[in-house]
Amino acid sequence: MNNFVLIGMPACGKSTFGVVLAKALGMSFADTDLMIQKKTGRLLQDIIDKDGMDAFLKIEDEVLSEVELDNTVIATGGSAVYSDRGMKHLGESGTIVYIELPFKEIDRRLNNIKTRGIAMAPGQTLKDLYDLRVPLYEKYADVTLDTAGMNLEDSVEEFMKKMDIEKPASAENFKRQK
Predict the structure, then answer these.
(1) In whole angstroms, how far apart are CA 127 and each of 105, 123, 152?
(2) Which residues are CB-contacts of 140 (< 8 A; sequence separation ≥ 6)?
(3) I want to staple 160 with a disulfide (CB 3.0 to 4.6 A). Which of 12, 145, 165, 166 is the partner?
(4) pLDDT at 105 over 70
(5) What is the pLDDT of residue 122?
(6) Which residues pair with 95 in a beta bridge?
(7) How far is residue 167 CA from its own chain's centroid?
């Protein structure tokens, strides 16, 4: 169990936080949305628009369930928590971290909701999505990191403190304390 799996709403900062955290810890970084695009040769929004949300979620479930990574920070798509099988698989390989952010901040950050590849049902609002997903993020999370009011560096520092991780002087000296 040496991966960190990031879950949370679109625009909460999973990918950005994940890259910076991976650099700080001397780990690799992976993004499951990019894995879906590589597997299908298509953009997420194209899959949702042309094949429908159910088809997208099926592909996401397959990709999440096939992830085999080690010593990696893994950013998932916001809808990853719809895949019980995928979340259980990811949880077996590491610590699941919910990047928590209040709805108001998600709403402020998310300008491209129609083109970003967000799995939303027709007529569903961002608030509906938030209310539906938050209990799922809480269900799967081993750790919750509330990033409200924090910049990126503060969020990484808070995470390392919460996980009792000493920042390595170099990648060779990296040691996660338990």
Answers:
(1) 12, 11, 24
(2) 7, 81, 87, 91, 96, 98
(3) 165
(4) yes
(5) 80
(6) 4
(7) 22
For residue 175, pLDDT over 60 is answered with no
Q: Kindly give, in sequence order, each residue whose CB lies less than 8 Å from that of residue 58, ignoring residues fewer than 6 positions away.
A: none
CA dihedral 69, 74, 80, 83 (to 10 degrees): 20
- Would you tell me how many other CB atoms lie within 10 Å of the CB of residue 35? 20
Residue type, 155: S
Distance separating alpha carbons of residues 98 and 147, to the nearest angstrom:
10
Predicted confidence at residue 168, as pLDDT, reads 58
CB neighbour list of residue 70: distance below 8 Å, 6 or more residues apart: 2, 3, 93
Q: Which helix (H) or strand (E) holds 7?
A: strand 3-7
CA–CA dist 129, 120 (Å, integer): 7
Half-sphere exposure of 121 (CA within 13 A, CB side): 7
What confidence category does residue 123 fall into, taking pLDDT thresholds of 50, 70 and 90?
Answer: confident
Q: What is the pLDDT of residue 1?
A: 63
Handedness of CA 23, 29, 33, 38 (dihedral sign): positive
